[in-house]
Amino acid sequence: MTLVLLSDADVKNVQNCQPGKPTGFVLPQTGPTQVICHQTSDKTGTFRFKNVVPGKYEVITVYKTNIVYNVSPERVDISLNHHSIELAGFEVDGFTVLGKVKGPPGATISVIGEVRATSGDDGSFSIPKMKQGTYDFEIKAGKIKY
Q1: pLDDT in tens, 50-71
Q2: pTM for this structure?
Q3: How far apart are CA 59 and CA 89, in angstroms?
Q4: Measuring CA to CA, which residue among 64, 71, 78, 83 is closest to residue 5?
Q5: Degrees (nearest 5) of the Cα angle 113, 116, 117?
């Protein structure tokens, strides 16, 4: 898992943290406007940002491999004074299914009888917040059913 540290202030020299954003990260439309740095957890899931100056920050979780995992909470606002802060409770609570339908755009993708996505012009779709399990997917495009 990767944590991204954001702020509206121009913060530099955070130790144990890669400057800038991780590959593929998209800055949210709300919240702080500057990506300070990012860090990937160690084997135990621990993060340590060192030498962070007091101020207001936001931490965003990113967990992408060949699967996009949903992590809760996605974002945490923190105010750092002159003390250390421990953030706990991040957990993977699902994953996102990414796919592509070959055929006309606008196909509906249903999971257990509920429409969860519609394919775009290129056939791609995503279904977030899936839980571990076995699922039947139904894809309909006009009168065609897959």
Answers
A1: 888 888 998 888 876 656 777 7
A2: 0.62
A3: 13
A4: 78
A5: 130
